[in-house]
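Hey, can you fold this one?
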Amino acid sequence: MKFKAVDEIHQFSFEDSEIQELKIEGEKVEFTFNGATVKAGNSQNGRYQNMYCGTIILQLENATIARIVKEGMKYYDANGALLSEVPDEDVPAPAKGNVLERCKKGTVFTAVEDKVAEGYAYEFGIDVPGEEDEEEVDTFWLCIVFEHSVAMWDKYVSPTEGEN
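Sure. Predicted structure:
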């Protein structure tokens, strides 16, 4: 890969990035994204403006999946009155493999950094097609704690909207 940024995960935006591949091997989690943004402050961004890049590989080293949460939802009637609520739920260990497999077809809508004593912690909000109906969407929060991040990509595609 032409560009490589180490421990600069905060200098990327993965919002609206499609997951092309997700691999978990030992203590390494590797995402391949399409549609990520390299922020202006990234050491590898000589344009000094937010730039879309093509395919990007994000490796999280010495990583642990701390938890996977299926996001709940609230149902309202036409007048805005709450009809029912499905709470968030931790995905139990036996179901984690299936959920991670489903996330391989997902789209990240946000990545939020959490505070930890050492290293990094990120929660990736991922929308995935529903199991029974692909028109429906299930949302999962993949919470990963890791020591180092390595992002690699080959090219910049264009500035983000609103930038020239």
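Helices lie at 93-103. Let me know if you want another pass with a different chain boundary.
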